[in-house]
Amino acid sequence: MRNMRVLAAIGTAMLVTGVLYCLAAEQGGARKKLLVYSESDGFRHSVVARPLTGELSFAEKILKDILTKAGYEVYFSQCFHDLKDEKQFDQFDGIILYTSGNPKINREALLKWLRSGRTLVGIHAATDSFTDDEAFVRMIGAAFLTHGAGDKEVTVKVENRDHPSTRMLPAEWVLADEIYQFKGFSRDNVRMLISIDTGKTNLEPQRMKADEYYPVAWTREEGKGRVFYTSLGHREDVWTNPLYQDHVLAGVAWALGLAEAK
User: Fold this and answer.
1) d(CA 106, CA 56)
2) Domains held by the chain: number
3) Which of 148, 207, 225, 261 is the most exposed place for a label (fewest CB within 10 A)?
4) Phi, psi (5° rounding) for residue 124?
């Protein structure tokens, strides 16, 4: 990442490349620094597509709002140049990924950085990234396989009420979103948070089966680092839902070690 001091001085100004924003000035390094990284190689979800004017995407604007209000120093990037070497990773306490395909980031540096005690938060298409990379798939917990209809309601059930990211959720959360199905998923590799209640969901439009398991959000530890992943976040009305915003915000806090499970 280019000169942080320049970024701090210009606040919300954009770099010449048009791909990296500084959304909060540095204040003595006291606040946790987060990078929201949403570069895509191939398909780009509409909620992270930036307009031609260069302003932040729909999801980025919401993350800017909730994360800065929570006291974090937040940066946004859609450029692989910002995650090429270890020094660039080391500037951040946590990285939030909403990527897809195989963006040209340094995966070895990412894993080393995370295992040293940092934070990774994956949202929705983060599991549709590097799906042939076994180390990345194990780190994030699964790889995208397919999905059903994105405009039909599902019922999500809370499996772990003791985690900060689920305490605000109803026992049965009904919402419409694009629900991922995964490959490379093992319950032994994660701590489950929420999953699809197949008994209370219309399975046909989702291309689901009653006797199969469909995880939605989970956590895991990678070395000394923490990973929080939620597959929700395809639709704009999900992003504007206060329950979803609180779910993500609490997941970030847990991954940073600022909120603990009971």
Assistant:
1) 24
2) 1
3) 207
4) 45, -100
Residue 260 included in any domain: no
- Using DSSP, state whether 100 is helix, strand or coil: strand
In a domain, 210, yes or no: no
Whose structure tokens read 């940073």? 256
Residue with tokens 């040293």: 116
Residue type, 139: M
* pLDDT tens-digit map of 45-57: 999 999 988 899 9
Residue 228: which CATH number? 3.40.50.880
| Residue numbers of the domain that contains 9 | 4-143+186-195+217-255
108 phi and psi angles, rounded to 5 deg = -65, -40
Residue 147 burial (CB count, 10 A): 16
Distant-in-sequence, close-in-space partners of 221: CB < 8 Å, separation ≥ 6:
227
Return the CA Rg of the chain.
Answer: 18
Closest CA to 80 of 52, 105, 112: 105
Element at 246 (helix H, strand E): helix 242-255
Tens-digit pLDDT profile for residues 202-243:
999 999 999 999 999 999 999 999 999 999 999 999 999 999
The answer to whether residues 245 and 67 touch, using CB atoms and an 8 Å cutoff, is: no
Confidence band for 118, pLDDT divided at 50, 70 and 90? very high
The verdict on residue 250 lying in a domain is yes
Q: Show the tokens assigned to 204.
A: 């046909």
In a domain, 101, yes or no: yes
Structure tokens at 145: 């396989």
User: pTM, whole model, 2 decimals?
Assistant: 0.89
